[in-house]
Each structure stands twice: as C-alpha cells, then as structure tokens.
Amino acid sequence: MQSPIQAYLDGLHAQLARMQGGEVANYIPELTKADPSWFSICLVTMDGAVYSTGDSAQKFTIQSISKPFVYATALADRGVKFVAGKVGVEPSGDAFNSISLDPKTGAPLNPMINAGAIATASLVAGATPEAQWQRIVDSMGTFVGRDLDIDEDVYRSESDTGFRNRAIAWMLKNFGIIDGEPMASLENYFRQCSILVDCRDLAFMAATLANGGVHPLTGRRALPLEHVERVLSVMATCGMYDFAGSWVYEVGMPAKSGVGGGIIAVLPGRFGIGVFSPPLDPKGNSVRGIEVCRHLSRDFDLHVFSRAGDPSMALGRIYTADQAPSKRQPSPQMRRYLNDNAHRIKYLCLHGFLAVDGIEYVIRRMIEMAADSSSFILDMHQVDGISESAARLLNDARLRFAGENIAVVFSRIHRRHAIKHFLSTTSPKNDRGYLSFEDNDLAVEWCENHLLGDLAMPTPDPIALVDCPLLRGLPPELLAQVDKAATVQCYRQDESILTTGQAGDGRVFFIADGHVSILVPLKNGAHQRITTLGPGMSFGEMALLGQTTRSATVVADGEVRCWVLEANDIDRLARDAPTLRIVLLENISRDMAEKLRRATQWIAALA
C-alpha cells in the first residue's frame, strides 16, 4: 500500500509543479543551464525512512546550503569560543552577498552570508588549504551519508566571476579574520558551493541535524551534540537572509537555501526536508521550495514551536488476536479457523499526543505488517489527543487499507470528544465513517467476523443437545433422558435471560441457535461484556456448584433459542444416575480451567 505521506507529497508536487514565476540564477554563468522545470521534494524521518517525489535523482550544486555544515565543522574543530571570535551569530537583514561586518572587529555578522561562510571555510582543521578542503568534503559526506564530488565547471565559473567575494576575502584578511592566504580559503569556499548533491542528499543532511547530529541510516555522528543547537539556531535566524523573519513566522523551521534551487528545513527530532527547484525569487530563494515548506508546515503542524515528541513513542505494544482473542466462546469449527488465522488481527496501542510524525511512524509500521494482516485495532485508551493533520493522515491511511480489504478500527475512544471530533471532521465526504468500539473485546470480535467472512466459512452444522460440551462423556441412555427432560425457550433480541443479583433457580441453559452476551455491572451504571456464547455453549451452570444468586447478566444478541434443564429435573435424573452430576462437574472444571488459561493469556498479552 502507498503511504499517505508519499501520496501527499506526490499530490503537492503535482499541484506546485504548475507554479510559474522566479528566475534561474544567472550571476554564475554555469547555473543558467539548469532546467526551470526540475522539481523534487524529499522527507526523511529519524529512523531513516525516505519519502521522495519528482526529480529526486537530479544532481545540482549545493551552493549556500553548504554554509551551515561548514560552520558546524568549524565549531567541531575549533570550539565555540574560537569561532565566535571570528564570526558572529546576529541576523544581518541583508542579502546573501552583502558585506556585513562588525564595524569594530571586522567580523562577519553571521556564518550564513558569504562573508561569514568564507571566514568559516578558513577555520576548519587542516595545516594546508588542501587539508582543509579534504576536511570540508569529508565532513559534508558524513552528513549526506556518502562520498561527494564537485561540479568542476560550476567551480570554475564561480571562481572566474567571484570578484565581489574576492573583495570580501581581502577585507577579512585586513581585519585579521582570515589568518592565512585569503585566496586559498576563498577557493575552498567556491569548491564547497560546487559540491554535487540531489534532493535526497539534502533531506538526509537536514535529517542528520534533526537527529542530534547522527546520520539516520549510517549511524555515524557528523557533529557533536552540543553544537547541533547552535547550528540550528543560526539557520533559524539567518538561514533565509532578509526573508528569515517571515520564514520563522510562517514556516517555523530552521532552514537554509541555495541559489542552485535547493532548500533544507529541519524539524528537530522529527523530520529532515529537502526541496529542489531552480527558479528563484528576488531574495535568492527557490519559489517552489518556499511554497512546499509552507504547505508542509501548515498541513502537518511542523512549526518548531508546536507540540512535539519522539515519534516512536506514539506506538506502544503490538500484539495479535491469537494472543488476545475475543471472549466469545466459538464453535469448534470457528475455533479451528481462528487458531490458524487470528494472528492476522493486530492490536496497536497508541500513546500520548498524536502529531503527524507519530502517526507517520504508526502508519509505516502498519504498512510493514499489512501483508499478513486482515485488521488493525487502534487502541486509543492512552492517547491524550490528536492533531487535525494527524487525524486527516490516519483517515487517509484507513481508506487506503480498506481498498486492500484490511480493516482499521478504533477502540476505547468513547466520550473522548477531542479525538472523535478530528477523526470525524477530517473524514472525506464520500466516506461512511470510521468504526469505533467501546472496548477491545467488541473490536476484536468484529475483526474476527471480518476475518471469518474473508475465509468464506461454511454454514455450521445444526447443533443438537447431545453435542453440547457440558454433556460430553454422558452414556447414550442418560443423554436420551436429559434430552427428553429439556424444554425449549426462545428469546428476542436484547431480552435479558438472566440478571445479575437475581436468586438462582438452578436452571442451566444450552444455546441451540443465536448468541448471547455475558455482562457484569460497573460502578457507573454501565456494563462490561466479558464473553459471548454461541450454539452449543451453556450458561447458568454455576448453580450446580451451589451458587445462590446470578453473578452476571445474560442478554440475547439476536433471536436466541435455548434448551433449558430445570434444577428439579437434574436432581431427579442424578438420583437414579449419579454419573450425570459427576460428568457435569468434570466438564465444568475443564471449562473453568480453559477460561483461566485464556485469562492468563490476556494478562500476558497486555502486560
């Protein structure tokens, strides 16, 4: 099944691919060769799942997106105090190529403008410019997760036309910001801007920062944790140049753009985002890229100041219906089917506040299990709330699973109006709505019926009184006497057959047709169903053990027909044939042992 995240990105790409406006960068001649129609979006999660669409394999030069990563390398190599003495962290409010230097010290205002980036290129470790370049390209390769190359034509074009940057480099030398040969550092800056990447690479670079400096797939640390927040802070305040304030206000993610058409955006602990589209606005930012990030932030609640947590915490225990089946007593035929196939019903226990990243994780786990699943029960008992965008994504997934004949149902959201509201309002107009059950037992019974329907279970054979498990082992002549003594009683749907607390009259009931629910009262006046019984099953037999009052309520789930043995008839038959009472007590003991085993299984599954 296609992930709803992937479907969303495909739809967003198709929508924004029609956008017009913007111009491909022309101040570097080689960049004018970019095709304005190139467009790709990529999103990477903290555990390395990749969602991409469009021209995601198209290579382009990273340009200014390299700046935060070289700054990160300088911090790792030289330390915060040393780097802060050379490059500030204050927003300039100016364009990327502005000459923004502190009037007293000559230090660039921040590492995201060209002046600051040229300075930081000179600060990475290395005794020679060649060694410094190797350090830069190796460090950036760790962020990407692979070895990197440069576009020699773009590098040469940048170097041949970079007169303004040469002036900046000499000014930095004049103020003592660059200690060595300024042109060597400048050439390394031109090289770092000419590194070839694709949209997937950008998303992994962003995801590595979002993951605390560790690459989500390789597991290699690209940046010490103590420097990650510093890099993200500078990206948030300075990464989009003179658009930075509007960006934080509207989109709310640390980001960096490049004149090659790329943008990275970082949502710490949740996602890394890469976008590539060459046409730029007057500020040097990708027109489509900005619009993509606006949509993602709005539609998925990705603003950095919104509520967030570890996505994997949204999903707790996963178990199956063979570990925790419904409490109904199935016929032997049903039991055989369920024993072989109940593992295809999966319980997923969700936790906490469900945002988009948490739901993405849950859906991805469901997709992984889909091939061996017929139903998913989403137990919402420990869910604090759900965002509107997460509910929309969950409804989308529910409908996609339904298209593959996999049911997704909800359990235990009764009276949870905040959750029910968003699940209802985000359901598509042509959708018949989601299924919600008051408890897990009702949910799993429905899922068992769904499974049995899929398996086209044949019509069960008619049940005779002699087939009932409680009478198993009686001699044929005694069975004939029991059958003769039994009377037939019929009950309507929802009719109470027995009631909690009523005096026990010794009657034992054997179900011929239909199903009944066994209910126990709760303190709030409601009832909790503890089991469902069908043809061949019995109830009321605890009276044979001396119980004087009924301990549960028995209600007909539909039209029900029962054989009833009166206490007087049982006593009469047992006087002449003591075997009757012995066999009944043995069968009751076996039944109680089986119920205890199943209860233990439930406890183990829920522990």
From TrEMBL:
Q: Can you supply a Gene Ontology BP term from the record?
A: glutamate biosynthetic process
Per UniProt, residues of the Cyclic nucleotide-binding domain are: 470-591
Among its keywords, does the record have Oxidoreductase? Answer: no
Task: Give GO MF terms, alphabetically.
Answer: glutaminase activity
What catalytic activity does the UniProt entry give for this protein? Answer: L-glutamine + H2O = L-glutamate + NH4(+)
Q: Where does substrate bind?
A: S64, N114, E158, N165, Y189, Y241, V259
Query: What InterPro entries does this protein map onto?
Result: Beta-lactam/transpept-like, cNMP-bd_CS, cNMP-bd_dom, cNMP-bd_dom_sf, Glutaminase, RmlC-like_jellyroll, STAS_dom_sf
Return the broad EC class.
Answer: hydrolase
Top-level taxon of origin: Bacteria
* Enzyme Commission identifier(s): 3.5.1.2
Give the keywords, sorted. Acetylation, Hydrolase
Recorded family membership: Belongs to the glutaminase family.
Subunit comment: Homotetramer.
Query: What protein does this entry describe?
Result: Glutaminase
- Species: Candidatus Accumulibacter proximus
Lineage of producing organism? Bacteria, Pseudomonadati, Pseudomonadota, Betaproteobacteria, Candidatus Accumulibacter
Gene expressing this chain: glsA
